[in-house]
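Email to the structure team, subject: Terminal nucleotidyltransferase 5C model.

Hi all, the expression group asked for a predicted structure before they design truncation constructs. Nothing fancy, just the tokens so they can compare against earlier work. One-line instruction: predict Terminal nucleotidyltransferase 5C, return tokens.
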Amino acid sequence: MEQMLQFWSPVEPSLPDYQVNRLHEVLTEVVPVHGRGNFPTLKVQLSDIVARVRSRLELSGVQVKDIRLNGSTASHVLVQDIGWSYKDLDVIFRVDLPTEAAFRLIKDVVLGILLDFLPEGVNKEKITPMTLKEVYIQKLVKVNTEQDRWSLISLSNNNGRNVELKFVDSIRRQFEFSVDSFQIVLDSMLSHYEQVQAPMSPASHPAVRGESVYGDFNTALHHLRNKLIATTRPEEIRGGGLLKYCNLLVRDFQPADEEEFKALERYMCSPEAGFGEEWAGRSVPCAFGLHFPSLSE
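Reply from the structure team: attached below.
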């Protein structure tokens, strides 16, 4: 179980001021959630919607253990001067999901909160949860197996900057490579926003903790700053990590260990890594200069 969860990894004791300020910018940026058809665009701040979700869940009897900014957005907060970009705003709520009813409750809570963001003048009484789901939800995923229990609700954005709310009880693998393994615990920031209306400043901002589920925060941060590609237990990566690996290579990242990745490149493009399932029917030009025919060729 300890290996499966991987939440309690080596920690950066407290993020420096410039990283906390960058986190504040991410949390308070207004992100549009685009509706389909004639439905209005919702204007959402990540800090606002996350706080509302936590509050409503707890009022409904669901304990939220903590809330984390995850993946590429967390990497952007930690390192900005290498041109690292992000699209999705990926947030993890750590919760218990013991039953199907818990999954349904979370979905109902999020859909209900979307009503709060509808502009004045909209008749909310005529809008059903099913309508909200069809209009504003880009993706709805539920995984409920012996080893993985989590759900994902992705809010639509026409520019690809989706707000992704992930509710995790257990998950075997949370990252592909060290550079996307960062998580930033948001609870202290959310509490600060609730208590203080003054602008964020070095004198007033709270202590914020960063973690890496790769296994060592400073090593992973070194990889990110120096554009190095590294991973652990590649056999656990769903689909083998090929897409992300190619994406990193075309952005001028390099393997931290050339010899290790020569073997790993072959593995990532093999059926053992799930390559056949993800890429069946496609001809794939790989960024490291190899061409692997599709299964039908």
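The two ends are 41 Å apart (CA to CA). Confidence is low (pLDDT under 50) at residues 1-9, 275-297. Ping us if the truncation boundaries need rechecking.
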